[in-house]
Design a protein that fits this description.
The complex is a heterodimer of chains A (433) and B (322). Chain A is an alpha/beta fold. In chain A, 27% of the residues lie in helices and 20% in strands. By secondary structure, chain B is α/β, with parallel strands linked by helices. Chain B has helices at 13-27, 54-66, 87-96, 111-116, 134-149, 176-187, 217-220, 234-237, 244-251, 255-258, 281-284, 291-310; strands at residues 44-49, 70-75, 101-106, 122-128, 165-169, 191-195, 211-213, 225-228, 266-268. In chain B, the strands form 2 sheets. Chain B has a 5-stranded parallel beta sheet with strand order 7-6-5-8-9. In chain B, strands 2-1-3-4 form a 4-stranded parallel beta sheet. The chains are: A alpha/beta (433), B alpha/beta (322). Chain A binds chain B through residues 193, 196-198, 200-207, 209, 273-274, 315, 318-323, and chain B through 86-88, 106, 108-111, 113-114, 128-132, 176, 179, 202-205, 207-208.
């Protein structure tokens, strides 16, 4: 089947528009028309009856592991996993080896993303040299590089020095940057393994207390207000953190936040069998935290869902709990988890999902080419999703090189049918195009 | 009843009483000139020890040998483990050698649990990190029952520890002995109180089946059993308490405190002791002290566990004693 490269998506529903089946014409890399009676000779047609169309999803928090840990993931495999999960853009975290703390490394990652082509890759730059929390990396040079870095993070480690954090927040104002903080007081979490509570007490695992996250978030909100600069809080995991961010936002302070799919669905009870597939940083918390995180995402206190996709090779998880690496994969399951946690519970409608998984993360990441609501003239980044697909057990084998999904065997609803990047299908019929 | 003994929570009251009764039967062996039973002839028991613990290892070794099992000692030092072999690969090696039971001591909480997922034989937890040490709790329960409920067929058989008040003192937060004892002793009907500085108690201790006190002195006169936990001096540098002297003054068991115990009360310690820190020498060496008995009872109790796990007689699934 040949054509002029354009696509006519028929019978699809666009959440937040009028909830009636319509057609979307994508041509020349953009959405050119939307309406029930579209026709376009030369366009390939995709029958999307029963499907919903979302603006291509944007992940603010992805570990692609390249350069350095190509045994766990590469830009190629990670972006393939992202596309299969409905993402058209991911932010690649800086904790690679070497660390993405120079223009050279961020440009390398950016170019690898362009070559892979499954989705756009926006590198995140390190805040401090080598993530060591001692000296600022050359933030401005990374901002001016071809990679156009705007989000800076030492993710995996906390910028715990308050003075350094203040300077970083202040410094990035010059180029509209944002500091994405991994909020974890290092002293309060020495040797920490699991949320401090009933489970850690019973299992004899060193506790990771909620206050170690909340104290840093409170401090950083005050710093962001003081210097008038943008703070983004990574992977919020406790009810108390949500409360502090709600308070900061009520003051009008420039604070945004993300929550991971796993913190919206899973609790520390899962650690009972000591299977490190459930070991993650910040740790899985309690049912009460999950409830509050969902509520905070629904009311906008938490701006967006970000996966913190953290692939690890088998041997990093096939060990004693304390020996195992922190982290879970998440790109391929995020939308299905959000359907279970937020949509099926009535907390968020699909227009809300589009906002929390595409529009807002793109805005926070300063990705001007992504996160546009689907209207004529919008970029041709479209995710087609079947929310009515019957719940199926998650299989660990996917496009990611790693298998450390905590959702393996769990029955989750929905299915990503197609992902269009700049009008070109990266995924069709649930498979890489 | 499960194939493994990983947590004291794996044991129903019936299971626990059966182990104690079996240990009581086996105890009579110790008085015979020939201490060996043929029960586990041809079975292979592996002692897999990742931590130095000579006393626990030889206790298990003696128990297995008295039941005629073949015992292989696998110490992490000087083995492939030192070269970085994973626990899983070690497990597969033991599996290939046909181990019927693996007794594991490991510095990581949950190691026994993980091992049980990789081997077909029974796994006995001989202490995993700061999680549990269930055979220590069993030997402690056995010691308490013998001392306070009588020995042999006379009285104790079938009995639990109902109504006995046990005070466990010290570093509960990092103690696998305390975790297993709280679970087992409460299963057996004892009333357990933990006495410790707040820094050495888990934050969520309120969810445990026991009472909590920060004041040892107020617990002494109502205790039938006082169990002292070893306090590690390195806890001081992590600010769990200001100094060893202060710890000792507030939570150490000295002669003056011992004098305030009821006349029948006993003093226990899982060893090794820090004399002069958590326990004074005159207390450790007093007639109330069961410390040496605990060691002897350790062999007997571990024989009972091995016998019941491997001897073809499963622990009853219903939790009823025979």
């Amino acid at each position: 089947m040949t054509g002029d490269g354009s696509w006519l998506i028929r019978g699809v529903t666009i959440p937040g528009r009028d909830e009636k089946a319509t057609s979307i014409l994508i041509a020349g890399g953009s959405v050119t028309a939307i309406g029930p009676d579209l026709d376009h000779p030369g366009a390939r047609t995709l029958d999307a009856g029963g499907l919903i169309a979302l603006p291509g999803l944007v992940d603010l928090h992805t570990h692609l592991r390249e350069p350095g840990r190509e045994d766990a993931e590469t830009v190629e495999t990670g972006t393939a996993a992202a596309a299969l999960g409905g993402y058209t853009a991911v932010h690649a975290m800086a904790n690679t080896d070497p660390v993405a703390d120079t223009a050279g490394v961020v440009e390398q990652v950016w170019r690898l993303g362009r070559t892979a082509g499954h989705c756009d890759v926006q590198p995140v730059g390190a805040v401090t040299l080598g993530l060591n929390g001692a000296r600022l990396a050359e933030l401005g040079t990374m901002a001016d590089s071809a990679a156009r870095v705007r989000v800076f993070s030492d993710d995996g480690r906390c910028v715990s020095d308050p003075l350094l954090m203040r300077r970083a927040l202040e410094y990035v104002k010059a180029f509209d940057g944002v500091i994405a903080q991994h909020a974890q007081d290092p002293r309060l979490t020495e040797g920490a393994q699991l949320n401090e509570g009933e489970m850690s007490a019973r299992l004899g695992l060193a506790g990771w207390p909620a206050v170690a996250e909340e104290a840093i978030i409170a401090r950083d909100c005050l710093l962001a207000a003081h210097v008038g600069s943008a703070l983004h809080v990574c992977h919020v995991s406790t009810a108390g953190s949500a409360e502090i961010i709600r308070w900061a936002k009520s003051k009008g302070w420039p604070v945004t936040a993300e929550v991971t799919p796993h913190h919206l669905l899973l609790t520390d009870e899962l650690a009972a069998g000591y299977d490190p597939v459930f070991k993650v940083n910040p740790p899985l918390r309690t049912e009460a935290d999950v409830t509050e995180l969902r509520r905070a995402l629904a009311d906008g206190t938490i701006d967006c869902v970000a996966t913190d996709h953290a692939p690890h090779p088998v041997e990093a998880k096939e060990s004693e709990w304390a020996e195992a690496a922190f982290g879970m994969t998440g790109l391929e399951t995020a939308l299905r988890v959000v359907q279970r946690a937020m949509v099926e519970t009535g907390l968020l409608d699909w227009a809300g999902v589009a906002d929390r998984m595409s529009v807002r993360p793109a805005r926070i990441g300063r990705l001007t080419g992504h996160g546009h609501p689907l209207t004529p003239g919008a970029p041709g980044h479209v995710t087609l999703y079947d929310p009515a697909a019957p719940a199926e057990a998650v299989t660990p084998a996917g496009a990611s090189k790693s298998r450390n999904t905590p959702f393996a065997g769990m029955e989750l609803p929905g299915r990503v049918v197609a992902t269009f990047l700049r009008g070109v299908p990266a995924v069709l019929d649930g498979k890489l195009a | 009843m499960k194939r493994h003994l990983i947590s004291a929570a794996d044991l129903s009251r019936g299971d626990a009483v059966l182990i104690l009764d079996t240990a009581e039967e086996l105890a009579s062996l110790a008085d015979r000139p020939i201490k060996k039973l043929p029960t586990l002839r041809g079975r292979t028991v592996v002692n897999l020890f990742y931590e130095d613990s000579t006393r626990t290892r030889i206790s298990f070794e003696a128990a297995a040998k008295r039941l005629s099992a073949d015992v292989i000692n696998f110490s992490a030092k000087g083995s492939s483990v030192a070269k970085g072999e994973s626990l899983k690969d070690t497990a597969l090696t033991l599996e290939a050698m046909g181990a019927d039971a693996v007794i594991i001591r490991h510095g990581a909480s949950g190691a026994a649990h993980r091992l049980a997922g990789w081997v077909r034989g029974s796994v006995l937890n001989a202490g995993d990190g700061t999680h549990e040490h269930p055979t220590q709790a069993l030997l402690d329960a056995f010691t308490i029952r013998r001392r306070l409920r009588g020995t042999g067929a006379a009285g104790a058989r079938g009995a639990g520890l109902d109504g006995l008040r046990v005070t466990i003192v010290g570093d509960v937060l990092h103690s696998r002995v305390a975790r297993s004892n709280v679970l087992l002793l409460s299963t057996l009907g004892a009333e357990v109180t933990l006495a410790a500085p707040p820094t050495l108690l888990p934050l969520a201790v309120g969810s445990w089946p026991c009472a909590v006190s920060y004041d040892l002195d107020s617990e002494l006169s109502k205790s039938d059993v006082v169990m002292m936990l070893r306090v590690q001096q390195e806890r001081m540098s992590a600010a769990y308490f200001p100094s060893v002297r202060e710890y000792s003054r507030r939570y150490g068991l000295d002669a003056a405190r011992m004098a305030r115990l009821p006349g029948h009360a006993i003093v226990m310690h899982p060893g090794p002791m820090n004399r002069g820190v958590e326990i004074a020498a005159e207390v450790a060496d007093s007639v109330r002290s069961t410390i040496v008995e605990q060691v002897a009872n350790g062999v007997t109790t571990r024989m009972a566990v091995l016998y019941l796990l491997l001897g073809g007689t499963e622990f009853p699934a219903t939790g009823e004693a025979r």
